[in-house]
Every structure is written in C-alpha cells, then in structure tokens.
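Renewal narrative, Specific Aim 1. Our central claim is that a sequence can be written position by position from structural information alone. The example that follows is taken directly from our test logs and has not been curated for this report. It begins with the structure tokens describing the chain, in the order in which they were read.
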C-alpha cells in the first residue's frame, strides 16, 4: 500500500481496502470484516497507527507519519487460514500471493544521520524515571527460580542455563528506548553478553542471519544476528536485585541500540535462523531491525515517498 492519508476517514477506507484485497487474494467468499476502528499516536505524536480488529479474529493496521503511509499489515487467525482452498494455500506457501508471517521484501534501511551518545535524546523520545510494563501475552502467574533458555540452530539444540549466565554476567549501565516514545536511561543491569553465553553453551554462531527470541508465553521478536552478537545481552538482574516478574524474570534480552519490543522478556527460546521471519510486532508493521539511532520504528515499503516528504 502506498500513497498519503489526509484524514481518519481516508485511513478507515485504506483499512477496508486492505481487507478487501486480502479477502479476494485468499479466496474468502465472505471476505474480512472490520469490527471497530481506533487511532493511536506514538513517539510524541509523530506517528499514527490506524487499526481495526476483525470480526473473525486478528487485526489490520495502517501506519503513517505526516500523512505518508509507512506500512500496512494484517494478522489473521488460524480459523481464517483454515478456510483457504488447497490451491491458494499452495500459492501462499510459494509466496506468490502474499506471505503470512514472513517479510515480503528485504528490510528497507533509509540513510539517516546516526545520533551518537551524548548528542541528546533520540528523535521522538522523552526520558522518564521508571519503566512502563508491557506484556502482549500477559504477565506470567509464576516464574522459574533459574533461567533455562533452549537454543535452536541448524546444527542442533543446546541450552543456556543459570550457571552460564552467572559465570558471564556483570553489572552494566544500559539504556532502554520504547517505540511509543519513552526512554529509561542509566539503569544498572546484571547482564551476560549474548555472544559469550552462546559460546559457553557450545553454539557455533554464524555471522549472517537472524535471531528469533521467544518468551514463556509465546511472544517473539526478531533481531539481525550481527546486532544481537555485537550489542546484545541476556539480563538476570536490575539495580542490585534479581529481575522482577514484571521486568522479565528469570532472564530477558536487553538490546540497548534497539527499541524495547525487541527485548524479549521471560526468555525461554533462542532460534538462529538463516532467513528473516516476523515476530509478534513485526507482523503488525513494526520494523525488522528497530535501530533507535535511525528511528526505525515501522517497516517501510515505499521509501521514495518518505524521502520525498523529508525534503
């Protein structure tokens, strides 16, 4: 979807058009019907997310900035996918109609100046003293006393356990920036470098690919593997104490250069992948990499329009 949006009515029409195209492409006789409509302003009102839940389950979203469409996405439930005929399902598997849960195109990284440490707050962010708690899958009722993170690689499966994390973790000052526009800076995390934890677990890590992290509740985020190895940590403590339940105990990812939705809490699985696949928020239009310094909040499928709007 490309173009501009000048009003909420146009955004609603764009969502309805997206659902109509999806229904036709999937061969659904009764199509896909919107149940409601909402608008969310993010990053100090610089981005707008227009969304609608679907009557059959799932949701559709259009993301825009200053009227320019950045991304359009729809998440469909298994009940809808089960209604697709066999021939369309085969075409879906080959990616000829659309790709469900995968990137249609490689990530689009626009050239922008990088905000170096000391230059001030990143664009669209405001410092706050305390974290805001988000949990797409809900807070777990209980958490294990120690970490047990299963690592899946093309060569096999291994485990990062509490012992490995305790051997490699140290107290580090790390920042966190949420895509919605708040930042919590200067907090002291007890964190193990991800690369070292993988090494001690016996993982032979490739230099190219993607890392998909999954939580105990099923939430997932995806990170470029090089970014995760160079700047990623597994944290087990915060401000002199073990992680609390709301902060992701017993272990979570911390990726200080990336937005907070990438920092998977209640971490139980790490998958090393050769090809990109969407996580929870990436499937809803959020960026594949999410680099704070380049303000990579959302996927961009029409970079020509963005570049034109910035000049």
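The sequence written for that structure reads:
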């Amino acid at each position: 979807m490309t173009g501009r949006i000048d009003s909420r009515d146009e955004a609603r029409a764009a969502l309805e058009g997206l659902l109509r195209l999806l229904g036709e492409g999937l061969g659904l006789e009764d199509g896909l019907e919107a149940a409601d409509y909402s608008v969310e302003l993010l990053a100090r009102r610089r981005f707008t997310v227009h969304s609608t839940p679907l009557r059959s389950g799932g949701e559709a979203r259009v993301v825009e900035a200053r009227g320019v469409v950045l991304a359009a996405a729809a998440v469909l439930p298994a009940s809808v996918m089960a209604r697709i005929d066999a021939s369309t399902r085969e075409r879906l598997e080959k990616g000829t109609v659309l790709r469900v849960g995968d990137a249609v195109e490689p990530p689009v990284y626009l050239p922008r100046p990088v905000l170096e440490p000391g230059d001030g707050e990143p664009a669209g962010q405001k410092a706050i003293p305390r974290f805001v708690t988000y949990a797409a899958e809900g807070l777990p009722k209980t958490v294990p006393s120690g970490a047990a993170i299963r690592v899946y690689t093309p060569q096999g499966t291994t485990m990062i356990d509490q012992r490995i994390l305790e051997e490699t973790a140290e107290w580090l000052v790390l920042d966190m920036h949420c895509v919605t526009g708040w930042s919590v800076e200067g907090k002291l995390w007890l964190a193990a470098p991800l690369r070292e934890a993988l090494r001690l677990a016996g993982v032979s890590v490739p230099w190219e690919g993607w890392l998909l992290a999954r939580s105990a509740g099923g939430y997932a985020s995806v990170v470029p593997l090089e970014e995760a190895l160079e700047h990623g940590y597994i944290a087990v403590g915060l401000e002199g104490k073990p992680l609390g339940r709301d902060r992701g105990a017993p272990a979570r990812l911390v990726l200080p250069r990336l937005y907070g939705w990438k920092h998977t809490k209640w971490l139980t699985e790490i998958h090393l992948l050769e090809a990109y696949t969407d996580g929870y928020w990436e499937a809803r239009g959020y960026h594949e990499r999410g680099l704070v310094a380049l303000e990579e909040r959302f996927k961009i499928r029409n970079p020509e329009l963005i570049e034109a709007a910035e000049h």
